[in-house]
């Protein structure tokens, strides 16, 4: 009997070893370029959209409809056999009202043809909506660390994601997007969005100048950006990149929040996010087409809305928490 138990234990260890080895081999192939990465010029044609900003001052691409060849990127990432993560936080009324439309639309449009793990952070596993996923897609439900702490929900959601990133998630995916639940995918959200560090341009502020951006103005805050400085205003709704990069964003937010709390200050997650990207320039930017607010009159620059923002006036999100205000939109530069 002892021999049988030991044999079974040995088999389990061997299976675990080969599982880890297989995952590390995939990661090695992905990050050590045994499959040659296509040059930016092979798939990105910014000259096709002269009406918008398509390249930043630090030469990062800004992805707009018509500027990319997804087929080339699909072929590249298929050879790497990557897995892409999508994390969303849903609790209470947010879960009941917004989670199912988000998941249904993500299943239809998010990274079609590639292996996807959807991470749902929630306070009650029993109240999750039923969603039938397509091929190569799986769910993983993760608990919020402190589901009863409603006032600290944005910090709680991101801290929970951070903890799960350290434990499991970073072993399971090559890229990860953390998204707010108040969104509905309207069109294909594909591999053209993948990058080491991915930021979403805010629809409300894209046509404004840096001195108009609602950055944190208090110099004593960890989120402070000097007046007139900054490049763009980034939306909290979509943050992506490698698991390491997403962890870095959350880590700085947690540290900034703790610093400000010690000084009896508070600021929204989006302010800390913009401070992070002010010093750590994203390697890829998503145009407002990837998160457009249908309450705003659609200007001619918006050719194809990938995701529609669903947050109503005065609502809060699990990745912000505080109230947000609409800007006075202008289509003039």
UniProtKB/TrEMBL annotation:
Keywords per UniProt: Glycosyltransferase, Membrane, Signal-anchor, Transferase, Transmembrane, Transmembrane helix
**Localization terms from the record:** Membrane
- Primary place of residence? membrane
Single GO MF descriptor: hexosyltransferase activity
Stated membrane topology is:
Single-pass type II membrane protein
Q: Which cofactor does it need?
A: Mn(2+)
According to the UniProt entry, the coiled-coil residues are none
Q: Which residues form the active site?
A: 270
Task: Spell out the family assignment given in the record's similarity comment.
Answer: Belongs to the glycosyltransferase 6 family.
Name of this chain's protein: N-acetyllactosaminide alpha-1,3-galactosyltransferase-like 1
Q: Which organism is it from?
A: Octodon degus
The root-end lineage is: Eukaryota, Metazoa, Chordata, Craniata, Vertebrata
| Name of the gene encoding the protein in the UniProt record | LOC101573389
């Amino acid at each position: 009997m002892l021999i049988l138990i030991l044999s079974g234990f040995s088999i389990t260890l061997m299976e675990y070893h080969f599982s880890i080895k297989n995952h590390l081999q995939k990661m090695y192939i992905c990050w050590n370029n045994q499959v040659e990465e296509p040059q930016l010029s092979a798939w990105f044609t910014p000259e096709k959209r002269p009406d918008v900003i398509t390249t930043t001052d630090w030469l990062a691409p800004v992805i707009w409809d018509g500027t990319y060849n997804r087929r080339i990127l699909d072929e590249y990432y298929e050879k790497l056999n990557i897995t892409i993560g999508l994390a969303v936080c849903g609790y209470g009324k947010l879960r009941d009202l917004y989670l199912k439309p988000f998941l249904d639309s993500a299943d239809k449009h998010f990274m079609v043809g590639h292996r996807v793990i959807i991470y749902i952070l929630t306070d009650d596993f029993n109240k999750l909506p039923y969603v039938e996923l397509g091929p190569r897609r799986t769910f993983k439900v993760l608990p919020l660390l402190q589901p009863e702490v409603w006032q600290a929900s944005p910090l709680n959601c991101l801290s929970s994601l951070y903890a799960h990133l350290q434990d499991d998630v970073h072993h399971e995916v090559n890229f990860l997007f953390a998204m707010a639940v108040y969104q509905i995918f309207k069109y294909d959200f594909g591999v053209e969005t993948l990058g080491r560090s991915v930021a979403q341009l805010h629809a409300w502020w894209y046509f404004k100048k840096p001195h108009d951006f609602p950055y944190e103005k208090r110099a004593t805050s960890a989120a402070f950006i000097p007046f007139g400085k900054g490049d763009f205003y980034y939306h909290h709704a979509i943050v992506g990149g490698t698991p390491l990069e997403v962890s870095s964003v959350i880590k700085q937010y947690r540290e900034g929040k703790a610093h400000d709390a010690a000084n009896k200050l508070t600021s929204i997650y989006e302010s800390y996010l913009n401070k992070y990207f002010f010093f750590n320039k994203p390697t890829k930017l998503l145009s407002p087409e990837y998160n457009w607010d249908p309450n705003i009159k659609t200007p001619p620059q918006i050719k194809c809305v990938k995701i529609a923002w669903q947050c109503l006036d005065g609502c809060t999100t699990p990745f912000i928490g505080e109230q947000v205000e609409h800007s006075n939109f202008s289509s003039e530069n």
